[in-house]
Amino acid sequence: MRNTTKTVTTVLAAGALALGVAACGAPGSSDDKNGALVVAASPVPHAEILNYVKDHLADKAGLKLEVKEFTDYNTPNLSTQDGSVGANYFQNQPFLDDFNKKKGTDIMPVVTVHLEPLGLYSHKVKKADELKKGATVAVPSDTVNEARALKLLDANDVIKLKSGVGNEATPKDITANPKGLKFKELEAAQLPRSLDDVDAAVVNGNYAIEAHLKPAKDAIILESPKNNPYANFLAVKKGNEDDPRVKKLAKLLTSPQVKKFIKDQYQGSVLPSF
Questions:
Q1: Are 202 and 152 a contacting pair, CB within 8 Å?
Q2: What's the CA gap between 4 and 193, in Å, rounded?
Q3: How far apart are CA 79 and CA 167, in angstroms?
Q4: What is the pTM of this model?
Q5: H/E element holding 96?
Q6: At what angle do helices 48-56 and 244-253 cross, to 10 degrees?
Q7: 15-42, pLDDT tens digit by residue?
Q8: CDD domains of this UniProt entry (predicted)?
Q9: Strand runs (DSSP E) across 42-126, as ranges?
Q10: Crossing angle of the two packed helices 48-56 and 256-266, in degrees rounded to 10
């Protein structure tokens, strides 16, 4: 049986202080180089990829690996920062840059593994140009993913953003909106469930897959992988990048076996980035 711990965000919030106190020197923490490496990850596809490594590659490489699942985008970095876990695998560089800046953390990438193309989905139309005047489009509420969603719509001529707008773009930066679309900001994990209530939603790849959507098939607009800055990576607190366990995991995550697993398992909905 896999040693995978599924963590509920509300419980974590209540126990955050206890976790912080217990982290120092705890088995699997960043202070214990002889224990299992505990990696915080989103359930899909990150934890699935890590569990493939755990089940098929880790023993031969002499790596003890424990996967801890989180359903939000904040706790993994906070747990990595305080040493509750030794590493995390769930995010991209623009998101991490924004998080480090706002939270005062010093998390850093180790190795890039895959891309989950962001997509626009709808239960009501089959093409973006079929959206009606005044239609409501749900987008992620966090800074980087909201900007990413708007840039996806801009790249496909649904809206037009102000020239040079970066990873802090909001609907206020829209300069042309021919259909008069209305934007509803929701936590990223809620977006798939919103599809019955809105006309369309821009959904992160991991949450789309969890909701049994197939980005390569079901998205009416899908992000291009070419020169894409949003690839996901293994990350650690600065200073832990030389941990032998982290180096072993980084090598395994970018192995030919993992590349084949990603291609076979996700059929274009998740793309290897190495």
A1: yes
A2: 25
A3: 24
A4: 0.78
A5: helix 93-103
A6: 100
A7: 443 334 334 444 445 556 779 999 999 9
A8: PBP2_lipoprotein_Tp32 (cd13597)
A9: 65-70, 87-91, 107-115, 119-121
A10: 130
